[in-house]
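for the writeup, i need someone to sanity check this before i put it in the appendix. the sequnce is what the collaborator sent (i think, or maybe the updated version? ugh). structure was predicted straight from it, no edits. if anything looks off just tell me and ill rerun, i have time this weekend
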Amino acid sequence: MKNLRKRAKLVSVLMTLLLFMLTVPYQAVFAEMIGTERVISQVNGQKARDYLNQILVRKDVQSTLISYGIDPMEAKARIDSLSDAEVQKLYSHFKDLPAGGGDFGIIIGALLVVFVVLLVTDILGYTDVFTFVKHRN
């Protein structure tokens, strides 16, 4: 009988602990629908983050960052710490920038367009700008 009480006491202590653990306050989990815009925003944010990280891997970008005194790993950490909206805004600025030249290319392009327009109007006889264009009388 004493042995049975000893075992029962052990079982009752374990059951009391289990019951206590079940009644301890817990955080309720709430399920909700996730909107399509939220999912698309997260996917676009991840794509933008991947694109910016691919840019940081390039050697020329890393050498430029180092020349400005910026550690490439610190730049990557800063990109990773941005929110999805901030990353998408930065990504859109990168996509809007012209690839390559800068102002010199724009000036050359504008001069070429002006030259072609004047040449065509000179050939058609509306202007007399270039001496190498032969006019029919």
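Residues 101 and 107 are 10 Å apart (CA to CA). The chain has two domains: 35-97, 99-137.
thx in advance!!
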